[in-house]
UniProtKB/TrEMBL annotation:
CDD domains reported in the protein's UniProt record: ENDO3c (cd00056)
Keyword DNA damage assigned: yes
Alphabetical GO biological process terms: base-excision repair, AP site formation; DNA alkylation repair
Keywords: DNA damage, DNA repair
Identification of the protein by name: DNA-3-methyladenine glycosylase II
């Protein structure tokens, strides 16, 4: 089975054109927001650990704790195994976050193998870790594995922007949104990126109503 990815801005542009052919309402969004940034990252243990550290924290608080962990050399599986809970707590990690990160270490994910796994298999592997939900796993697939067909239906911004795009009376549930957008496949990552950008415009009240 071929794994579809988006590696370059040119490929994203091609995916957006194909998406607009399926869902013409995206044409007006694309005209307003332009080509979104792919926001790719290198992935791996450190990327997931950083995502877990930042859950339910402000950007500033997450950055502060991460900086302390980096300075204390506590960002690799080996270093986490060697550290006591008190050492991790001293860097700002709560008891819950420490449990999550130790679960990530214990699962010993083969990150290279994730590259060739179908989306749902990769998500299943990631969500087996305590503290990694489907949203975090989908963010990893979208931004680290560069997958082309990921729509984060649990994401608040995606739901709000989709409500505006589709002219819905109320914010859709994840199940409703999945059903409403199933036909956008296999270009749902392009849809996610456009909807996040559109949400930014809606928040600033500069978007033109569709």
């Amino acid at each position: 089975m071929s794994i579809q990815t988006i590696e370059t801005p040119q490929e994203l542009s091609e995916n957006i054109s194909a998406l607009i052919a399926i869902e013409p309402k995206f044409a007006a969004v694309y005209e307003q927001v332009g080509l979104p940034d792919l926001r790719h990252n290198a992935g791996g243990f450190e990327q997931l650990m950083r995502a877990m550290v930042g859950q339910q924290l402000s950007v500033a608080a997450a950055a502060s704790i991460w900086k302390r962990l980096v300075e204390a050399k506590l960002t690799t599986p080996h270093d986490i195994r060697e550290a006591t809970d008190d050492t991790l707590k001293a860097q700002g990690l709560s008891k819950q976050k420490t449990r999550y990160i130790r679960s990530l270490v214990d699962h010993n994910i083969d990150f290279a193998a994730l590259e060739n796994m179908p989306n749902e298999d990769a998500i299943k592997t990631l969500t087996a870790v305590t503290g990694i939900g489907r949203w975090t796993a989908e963010m990893y697939l979208l931004f680290s594995l560069k997958r082309a067909d990921i729509l984060a239906v649990d994401d608040l911004a995606i739901k709000v922007a989709a409500m505006a795009l589709l002219g819905l009376a109320e914010r859709p549930t994840p199940k409703q949104l999945n059903n409403l957008t199933h036909h956008w496949s296999p270009y749902r990552s392009a849809a996610s990126l456009l909807l996040w950008s559109y949400y930014g415009l809606l928040r600033n009240k500069t978007a033109v109503p569709l």
